[in-house]
Amino acid sequence: MNTSGLNELEAVLAVARHRSFRAAATELNVSTSALSHSIAGLEARMGVRLFNRTTRSVSLTEVGAEFVSTITPALSTIRVALEHAGNRQAMPSGSLRLNTSAGAAKQVMPLFLEYMRRYPQMKLDIVTEGRLVDIVAQGFDAGIRLGDSIPQDMIAVDISPRQRFAVLGSPAYFSNHPAPLNPLDLNTHECIRSRMPSGAIYRWEFERHGEAITVDVQGPITLDNPTLMLEAARAGVGLVYLTEWNAAADLAAGTLVRVLEEWTPSLEKLRLYYPGRRHVPAGLRALIELIREEGF
């Protein structure tokens, strides 16, 4: 079967995703010049320009953007059909592209490692980012997010037990500050503020016996990365509000101390989600089966 036409379309999607011929060529394992010639040839045959190119940037033209939005779901269907037709072998092979957050990836990394051990012919391509993206439009096979943020038209599978938030501070911090007894006490504490992907500052949420309290904490530093927040908390900068699985190592080591535990609410479970379609790619199906073995 001649797949050169499909390869050209995959090349268009890769350049559209990365906004870079170099990055797209790396993903597709071809040279940048070969990729550029391939797309230039497709544009010549179509009689339209799909990309605006300068020495500094690559962007879709209006025609290109419409073309990409049209071929993305069609190519996804073709990929699944080809894999379903040819994937009679016992061991799945190929690549699996997943989109998730950095914190979620950290939590489920043991599952990914087991997946790679069990299916050595599969390659995982995991993109972590805070913002929620359209996994179909961006060319991902599946995503992993908290259950309440997943689009309702997706099929979802639990991938973790429920977790809770935790308010934490270092022993050095508490040597100079009394532990808060209720959320409103946080108004007298230095806190490490969290910036969400939207740019908004996260207001700490608490609940006990049906009473809900939201606190717009104040402090000397605002961060958008859990690893940096933990580092600042260990240094005694202030209190931090993170998930239990982000703070597990520090709690076990005693480098951070938990407070307000009876006030911290539970999170939704993490879930793997993917588009509802008749044929699920073999690599994704294998991951789903592995998740179900864990019994979440």
Automatic annotation (TrEMBL):
Organism of provenance: Pseudomonas kairouanensis
Single Gene Ontology MF annotation: DNA binding
Keywords linked to the UniProt accession: DNA-binding, Transcription, Transcription regulation
Protein name per the record: LysR family transcriptional regulator
Cross-referenced Pfam families: HTH_1, LysR_substrate
Keyword DNA-binding belongs to the record: yes
Ranges of residues in domain HTH lysR-type: 1-61
Family as reported in the entry's similarity comment: Belongs to the LysR transcriptional regulatory family.
